[in-house]
Amino acid sequence: MKKLEKILFLLISVFLIFSCGKKTEPFPIKESIPKGLSFEINLNPQGAELLISLPTKTEGGYSLNKIKALIIEKIELPLDIPKAKKKKKTIKLSPKLHSAGNLFIYNDYELKHRHQYTYRIKVIKDFLVETPFTEPITIFWHNPPSFPQKFQIKLLGEDALLITWERPKEDIYGLYLEGEVFYQLEKVSKEGIKLVKIKNKEEYFDKIKSGEKVCYNIRAILNFRGTFIPGPKTPDKCVE
InterPro entries, alphabetically (predicted)? Predict the structure, then answer.
């Protein structure tokens, strides 16, 4: 009888030891995948600015405190070389997630004149879990247009003015500029900053308050195969 009791005691002890040491089941991989990764591209005279919205939750709704890597895939294709081969570059970054926000900005200033660029991104959470690549975004890059020429302001009485300029003939590197160009006029006054898009003309009529200081600058924007490439702003011209 005592022998049987010892055997039962040993069996119960072993069961309790293994039960207490049993680990919690990990989250399924599908629920651990980061959710909500997205990006957009803004262009400036220096190149492309990728505005990346990093995920803060997983597909299972759990908080995401860190990621191992952000992968940016960039594919380059020259537009003027028949049957040219695409060139792929993979950029690996390690952004930190923090409570101040999930926006991460990556600037790509290594763009070549008359080339096509396609970007897509993904996030690696750890060695087992990563997101699929996002949908790609394609841009067409051209040297930005130079300043609009002969930028002038003519007062028309005390409360009106006429702004005139001429289309730039060259890009910022002095090459002849072809293609559709429109303009962005910036007005700075006590009321704030106002941006005006102007197309198919090289003049703009504006009303102002008598005695108030108002400043203007303008930039040309080139439409290259549907990609809008901004040139630099002119220095401000002010009236009061």
Answer: FN3_sf (IPR036116)
Tell me the whole-structure pTM to 2 decimals.
0.83
List alpha helices for the chain, DSSP H. 2-20, 29-32
Q: Report yes or no on 5 lying in a domain.
A: no
100-136 burial code (b ≥16 CB/10 A, e <16): eebebebebeebeeebbbebbbbbbbeeebbbeebee
Closest by CA to 115, choosing from 95, 153, 149, 89, is: 89
Characterise 143 by phi-psi region: left (phi > 0), alpha (psi -120 to 50), beta (else).
Answer: beta
Cβ contacts of 13 within 8 Å, gap of 6 or more:
none
Joined together, the tokens standing for residue 59 give 């597909």
The domain of 88 spans: 29-141
Q: Give SS3 for 69.
A: strand
Domain with residue 79: its CATH number is 2.60.40.10
Tell me which residue has tokens 């191992």: 68
Residue 135 sits in the same domain as residue 159: no
